[in-house]
Every structure is written in C-alpha cells, then in structure tokens.
Task: structure prediction
Amino acid sequence: MRIPCPYCGPRDSSEFAYHGDAAPRRPADGDAAAMATYVYLRDNPAGPMEELWYHAYGCRSWLVVCRDTRDHTITGAKPVATHGATA
Amino acid sequence: MRYSLLSLVSHALGGNRDWKPAWRDATPQPSYDVIVIGGGGHGLSTAYYLARDYGIANVAVLERGWIGGGNVGRNTTIVRSNYLLPGNIPLYELSMQLWEGLEQDINYNAMVSQRGVLNLYHSDGQRDAYARRGNAMRLHGIDAELLDKEGVRRLYPFLNFDQARFPIQGGLLQRRGGTVRHDAVAWGYARAASDRGVDIVQNCAVTGFLREGGRITGVETNRGAIRAKKVAMAVAGSSSEVAAMAGLRLPIESHVLQAFVSEGLKPIIPGVITFGAGHFYISQSDKGGLVFGGDIDGYNSYAQRGNLPVVEDVCEGGMALMPAIGRARLLRSWGGVVDMSMDGSPIIDRTPMDGLYLNAGWCYGGFKATPGSGTVFAHLIARDEPHPAATALTLDRFAQGRVIDEKGQGAQPNLH
Result:
C-alpha cells in the first residue's frame, strides 16, 4: 500500500503512523457525553473513509487520506491543515 | 446420531458410505423465540447453550456465508485464560473450564489439547509484569507458573536464549492452556445445537431490522423477513455494520489480523510459545504445520487478507525467537477481520434498543472465549441480566470511565 504524500510523492505505508478516523471533532470542554462520543464511538465504515496518517519517517506531516477499507484503494491525500481535522 | 467407537467401527466396516450430515441445513421459518445473527463459534455456542441451559430451542442462527468460514476457521486455535484484570478473568476461566469438558458434552472430537501456553519475558520489568499477572490468575484459582531461564530451557532448549538484544529471561506458563481444532468447534457446536432443535440457516444475510415502537421484533434478510421475540448479534468483525442497521454506533474499529502456517514438519514445538519482545506466537498443529501470527495490520480494514509489512514483521519475530524456523517454508497465510474495541476487551450487553443484544469487540481473543461467550450471552438473552462471569463487559463502560484496558493503551484500537 502506497500513500501519495502531497509533499514527498507516493511513499510506502510503512513510513506512516496511523491515527484512525478523521471525522470526529473534539467537543467543547465540559460536555462529558459529547466527549465520550468523540473518544470512543466510531462509524467504522466498510468503504471509503477519511483517516489520519502521520508521515513519521518522511516529512512528519499529518495527512488526511481517503482510503477504501474493503480493498485499500487510496483516492487522495491532503495536508490536515486544509481539512480541519483534530488529532 | 451419537458418535462412539461402535459407530466409527460399524461405519468403517460399511465402507463409510452412509454417514449423515452432522447438522440440518435449515430453511428459515417465519418466526422464532430468538434469532442469533452470525453462525461463527460464538453464535453457534450461544444457540447451543440457549437450548441446553435455558430451554429455548426455538432459535435460528443466521449465517451470511457458510458455517466455519469466518473467524472461527481463521484463528490460530490457541486457548488460555491468562488475563490480568478482574473484569476479564472470570469469563476466560469459565471458558477454559468449558473447553476441558466440551468434547464429552457435545459428543464431538474437537482435539482439545492442553499442551501449555508460555509467555516469554526478556527484561526485569516484563518479569515483574508477568509475576503480577500470574498472581492475579492464582488469586482467581487459575494455574500459573513463573519460570526462570533454566525452567524455559528445560521445556524449549531450541529457543534463542542469548540473543544480544532480547535475551530470554524466563516465562509465565499456564499448563492448562493449549490448542483446540477450530473447525471442529464450529461443526461440533452446529451439530449439538441442531440436535436440540436449533435452525442453522446458511447464506442468509441480515439486511435490516424490523421494529415496532422502540423495540426490535425481527430482521430483514435476503431470504425474507423473520420475526423474533429477541435478536442477538454475534458478528464480530462486522459488528459496526450490523449495529448501524439498528442506528447504533459502537466503540469498535474493524481491523485485519493475519495468520500463517508452514509446511508440515516432524514434531518440534510441544506447546504454545509467545515472544515477549515483539508480537509473535507459535504452536504446531497435529498435522505438523507451524501455526503462527503476530500484530494486526494496524489500520481499519474489512479485507479478509493482509499486507506484506506485517508478514515481514511476524517472520522477523519468529526468527528472533527461534532461528531454526528460517529453514521452514511458509505454506499459507490468510486474514480475518476482527472487532478491535476501544479498550481491548469484549462487549456482552443489552443495547439501547429493546429486544436487541450485543456480543462484540473480541479483538484478538475471540476463539479462546467461544464456550464462555456462548454461555454468558445465552444467560443475558434468556434472563435479561448479565451472567456473573460477565458483569463488567457492558456497552456503557466507556462513557462511565470503567474501561477494561489490559494493555493500558487507551482508546487507540490499532495498538491493543
């Protein structure tokens, strides 16, 4: 599996660390129920999914990668800053 | 038909021509008392214990594929009860005790082999952690022995004891642990449940839930709607997908776990060994193949096959532990999709939907729990209260802050 890093080009996935679903957004402090949902609950789709990958052995950028969880087809990777995800 | 030495001999003399199928391949009826979604080990054992212990035999087990085609036939067949935390220990020990009497109970040869499970340690800190784990086990009445280096050497002289980076200092041994032939577990439970009146329906995929008010009253399938008083999910690997049909989100990610088997060799590894400095575990099947595995691939996956970096990582673990393994050729590898829960422990609980019960989140450890999982899940379904051995495995433990995190990794499923 190769991930098309926007800075380094296509690189082997073993250069990256995985941080899961990019969709959850950290809620405001103080809302315990929303925080539990953010920390623990996941859609876990069988199909295309936006997820966080960190190019640990490369440019050390956080990326949002769109990958199909059924066959690992990767349709895009962009810097996390342009996506608004929170790690 | 009851299997016995007499039945074996008489069929052999008859040329083995008139064996009957071991279970009925049923067509679904319009309604049941209980529907179990998922005809894996846990679904089949749940149906069996519902019929045996709670007198509920009007049960259907709905399997999307075929019996034995999912994770019950994809694991590395290891059984053990060497857990640390009080929320987990009673369930796995219940399961271990049920393995010990399983073959007599279901009249089926599952090749239960208590050949011992040894977890190696390679540092002082790891020794202390294993001593603590062994003490926790013994406090719960489970056998555990802490071996020093010489104790391990007496059992397995061929291991790489003086490896420069990860020398073997000793190991924690559970002699009652071992292996069980996994296909026979699926077939044996299917046969035992079928004999008690349970309908096992293959090629029957659930596509939705029937609801009345806030209550689940059955399922939609590719073979029509089936009504039931209670619906139970035992679909680890696909729990999120099925739960989503009922509008539930779960604290679970699906990941792929690979397993490997070498060409057949003469007996060399008498028990089960796990490497403590990486993630690698190995045993030898009765057919002679070395059966081994390691880490999950590390990212969400519904593909029942894995990628090469983990193949390399697992084989490196094997070479570090036991260099002789390098002379054996790899015969097959495969993958199974597992529910990785947010704390690494399973969930056996009612759901917020009345009439819907959940058995999920087994991570790496579903196979060893098969008899115990079925027993406690059947209790929950029949009595609407948790079995005493599974009171902590609730769905709301995450929101409540009562997680059961054996590895202490936090809500990062790919690290459990």
In short: The beta strands of chain A are 2-5, 9-12, 17-21, 48-54, 62-68, 74-79. The longest helix of chain A spans residues 32-40.
